[in-house]
Each structure stands twice: as structure tokens, then as C-alpha cells.
Amino acid sequence: MLKVSYTLRSKFFSSLVAYSVTLFLCSGGDLFATDKIELYLKWTHQFQFAGYYAALEKGYYKDVGLDVDIIESRKGVEGLHQQVTAEAGRYGVGTNEVLLQWHAGTPIVVIAVIFQHSPSVLYLRKISSTQSIHDIAGKKVMLSPRVYEILAYLKKEGIKSSDFIQLEHSFKFEELGNGKVDALDGYSTSQTYDLEKAKVPFLTFSPRMAGIDFYGDNLFTSQFELESNPERVKNFREASLRGWQYAMNHKEEIADLILSKYNGSLSKERLLYEAEQMVPLIQPILVEIGYMNPGRWKHIADIYSEFGMLPKNLDLDSFIYNPNPQPNYTIIIRSVAALCILVVLVWILLRQRWNRRYSENLEKEVAQRTDELREINQSLKTTLNDLTEAQGRLINSEKLATIGKLAAGMAHELNTPLGAIVSSNHSIATFLKADLRVMIESLSKFEENDFRLLEVLLKESLRDESHFIDGKQERALKKELASKFSDALKMNISGEHIALVIESGAYRLEEEKVRSILESKKSIELLQLAKFIANANRSCSIISVATEKATHVVKALKNYLVSDQDSKSGESQIDVVHEIENILYLYYYNIHNQVTISKNFTTSRKCLGNRDSLNQVWVNLINNSLHAMSNEGSIEIKVEDEADFIKVTFIDSGVGIPESIQPKIFDPFFTSKTDAAGLGLGLDICKKIILNLRGRIEFESKPGRTAFYVYLPAFSPSSEPSNH
């Protein structure tokens, strides 16, 4: 009997183990499941796509459950967008053409930008040191399809397509060296290496020199992929950006990886050169990799609209992916409202029940009702306190959102002075490493008369270090000097002397002094020394001005974000003009091209109050003006005295406030904005802040002109609290 029982138990456990193993094996596909992803590149394998190789090889994709296949292209971007949208799970590396494809109806969305600046440049075969972009007139120029930023650059320089001979791009860059073409476009990250390796003399012209700043490579996917798999899109983006961070910190390792697994036809030297050239374009230290500024995309759209390829004022919200969307407070507000209604309904039901129960005894009923009303009153007070706290949290959230918008463009405001500092520092380094040695050698051979002429020349060269002439002015000046000194052989219009006379600033000297310099046997050396010193002096001045501008930007942002000690402790004296100027400076990057700001500040008096709260009033009024004008128009701001008040006026040229809603604009949660653009708390908050300061706010509006008037009591020693 025991033996039979033992046998049965053994069979039972054996069957249980076998069944468990079978379940585990059958479910194994689910336990270790990964999503199949295809990433389509816009060109052949090279360091340009290093971040995706790093993410794949380092297991970043695998960590988030993605099995990624990276597919190179031999046709550029042709058909790329259609491939990505054909199926779910597909992503692409594209150019700024994704904007055109999106507007044409291709359901795509851009989820990250890798290159903050486009590497597209125009190469010009170098013939002399005085060449400029205008020298392509009448020359053969080879251009790739869809190089709109190059065409926009030429248009801004006043060069029409009929001014040069345009040829189809053969992508044979050696044709620049053998003279088959005079100019061609290419990528500064790779073609510069090829031209230098072939020892082709060339000049490089970037569209950024004319203020045309396109994005470079971007990462995009289909709208269907984003809607059906939002978490997968987020994971793929984060893993890719993590790979880019690794690749830019381990360039040599990734270069070896590309050679061994992706493209062995390239040299390691070329890959590392490309990697170093990508650093200033990606800017991994200054800007978070993958960051996109809607203002930059609008700038690109505006360039396309100038060519008639896109309409003006295009709404790009559905085109740009937001990895960190703002929280939706609608559910919270509705829940609070529903709770209040529920409380009222419960109270009504309880009241009816009490009426029925205590109808026989009026005295008891009155006493009981009084007690219940007291409880309900307390409950309503508690609810009111909860609502007040909720409103305070909403106000803080709105202020934080405003701060985020103001800070978004600061990196781009700092890029310009920082770039000027880097460029000027490079010029000074060149002066110290190379030019200084030439100067010492030349000075050792100078005679007394040469030193005298050099002193005269340096006084003029260093007199105005900020003076700058463009290419057009330089050509006109050469013609003028060649005509004035037509009897001097050294002043040939294409010669070295006339170029040095301009670069050293000698052309500003009296004619007699210029002739004395030209007659010297050391004329070339004199002019070169003056040029070297003038350039170094100009670079120092540029660094000084750029440092001052960068300091101004940082100081303005600090003043807005950091509350002073008085503001934290209560009321303080507020310089209204200074605070408004500070806020306008923070808005400068987003509005200076589309909005005209006129200021009329005629008072220096101060008011008493909380600086942070009052700044929130100015921010709300400016935001409302910009929204009413769709970020295009004019805003007039006045600060003036009116009796015992400081009167602050904001006037915008927007569409105006309809008469039907004017009585409601200060009501809480009332908004005229659509698409959840506002919570309807802005003007309600403004009014409460101003009333707390013993002031008032008024407005008048009609189409094309809306004016808000804020009256604040002017500070005087008698108005200051005794405990302040």
C-alpha cells in the first residue's frame, strides 16, 4: 500500500514538473519578447550616424526591449519618408525636408534633432585671398537637389540663380580641383577632409554667415507609430540619444566599430576627422542632444515660405514631438467640481431626511438643523481651503511653465557671444603662435625711418578696432584706391599691397602718408605688421563685448528666477521700470523679429509690494498680448506718474476682446483661448495681486487696439509699514 502511494506521488510530481516546464517553454517567447524596429539612414554608413551604432552595440536598445536593424541608403532621402510611414515600427534619419513632406500630407512627426546646426556649406575654388561669395557670378556651380538653405543664403546675399551657371551635382569633389567646376555644395564634416587630402585650395561659405541657421540630421517616425506605440517611441528616442552621448565621448572606439562592422572602405583618419567636425554642430556640452526649439523650426518654415514652398505662419504643433507634455489639469478641476456637487446633493438628501424624521417636534428639528448647518458650514470652509490650496498649486504650475518658456531660448542667445569669443580666441592664438614670430623677424631688419612709418600706421590701425567692411564695400574701396594711386605700381587692384592697405586700416591715412609707406622698401612688412596687431586688438575688443553680452543674459535670467531676501520675507520697494526691462530682455529672443516693442518710461518712482507676484502680472499681460497678435505686431508699454499712483499701460495691436466677453475676462477659469492654451486663471490672478497692493486694473479694447491700465500706489516713507 505504501509502495503504491509512493509511486502515485512520484508520478504526480513528475507530471507537475513536466507541465511547468512546458508552460515555461511555451511562454518563453513572451518573457523575452522584443519589438522589431527598422531604422532607415539617409546615406551610407559613416560617423554621421555613430549614435545609433553605439546604442545598438552597447545594448541600449535591448535594455528597453527593442531589436533594431539599421539600414543604409544609396539614394539619399529619395523615398525615405514613404518607407518609414509604410509600416509601424519604422524610424528614419532625415533632413529639414521632413517639414515639406509633413505639410504635403505624409503622416510623420520629428522626435529629436541631432545636429543643432546644418553641415551644408558651399565650397569655392580659391584663386586669391580677396575672394568672396559674390565671385561665383558667371561661374559654374554644382548644387545637390533640395539644398534650400544654400539657395536661401545666395538669395540673401543678393545672388540670383541666373547670375551663375548651375550644374547637376556629380558628387565627384575632385572636379573642384581640376577646374571642371568653380563651386559646389557639400558637408563640412566629411567633404572638407576629402578636399584637404587632395590638396585642393578652397574657401568655405556657410549659410550661417548670413543668419540662415537650419537644423542638420533629425530623427523622425510615423504619426501612426506615435499614436499606437507612444511608450516605444519614447524608449527608442531615449536609447538613441543615450547612444549619441556615448559615441561623442568615445569617438575612437566607435570609429573602430564602424570600420569592423559597417563600412570598411573608409579610413579611420577620415572617420575621426568627421567626428571632430561634428562637435560644434551637435554642441553636446551647450545643448542637450535631441533638443528642438519650436522657434528654430518656425525660422526654417519661414525660409521655405519665401520660396513659396510653405504657407506663412504654419502651425507646427502636430509636427514636433513633445517628450515632456504639460500635465492636464482639466480632470482635477472637473473632479473638484463634481465633489462639490456631490456634497451639495448629499446635503439636500440629508436635509429632506431630517425634515421627515423631526417634523413632529419643531423645536428639536430647529436645533438639529442648526447643528447640521454648522457642520455643513465647516465642511464648506474645509472645501474652500482645499480649493484655495489647489488654486495656489495651479498658479505655481503656471509660473513654472512661464519660466520654462523664457529659459528655452537662452542657450541660443548665449551661442552668439560664445561663438564670437571662440573665434576671436583662435585669432589671438594664431597671432601668438605664427604672426608674432614674423613680426619679430621683420622688426629686427627695420631702419629708423621704417619704425617712424610703423608708428604712424599703428596709430591709425588701432584708432577704430570695431570698424568692419563687407565684401561689397571692400571691392568699391579697392577701385577707389587703385584710381587714386594709379601712378603707383604697387597699388595694382588685384595685388597684395592694396589688400594690405585695406586690412591694416592704412587707407584712412592722408594720401601723402600712404605714399610714404608704399615708397618704403619694407612696405609689405610694414603693412603686414599693422594688420597683425590690428587684428589682435580687434579680437580682444570682440571678446570684451561678447563677454559683456553673455553676462547681461545670465544676469537678466538670474534676476527673474531668484527672489531677493526682501521678496521672500514680504513687501519690498519695487523698481517697476527695471523689472519690466528685465522681463522684456528675457523675451527678446522669441519676439525681436516679429514684434515691435515701443517703450515710454517717464517715472523713476517705486511701489511697495512682492516683486515675484508683480512680475507675474507683467508676464501674464505680455503673454496675452503676444497671443492676441499671434506673435506678430506691436506692443507699446508706458510707465508714468498719475497723482499718487504709478500708471503702467500695455497696448497691443491684436484682434481685440469681443464685447460679449469683456465683463467676464477677470472671472476665474474663464478663457478665450482655444486648444487648452490657458487655464483662465491669468487675469484673475493679476487682479487679485494688484488689489492686494491697494491698486486697480482697467482695460479698453477694440479690434486692432487693446490697452490694460495698472495703477499702483507710489511708494513714500509714510506708506511703508512700521515693521518693515
Automatic annotation (TrEMBL):
Keywords: Coiled coil, Kinase, Membrane, Phosphoprotein, Transferase, Transmembrane, Transmembrane helix. It is an enzyme of class 2 (transferase). This is histidine kinase. Signal peptide: none annotated. Residues 609-716 form the Histidine kinase domain. Its EC number is 2.7.13.3. The keyword Ribonucleoprotein does not apply. InterPro entries: HATPase_C_sf, HATPase_dom, His_kinase_dom, HisK_dim/P_dom, HisK_dim/P_sf, Sig_transdc_His_kin-like_C, SsuA/THI5. Residues 359-390 form a coiled coil. It comes from the Bacteria. The chain crosses the membrane at residues 331-350. GO terms for molecular function: phosphorelay sensor kinase activity. It comes from Leptospira ognonensis. It catalyses: ATP + protein L-histidine = ADP + protein N-phospho-L-histidine. It holds the Pfam family HATPase_c.
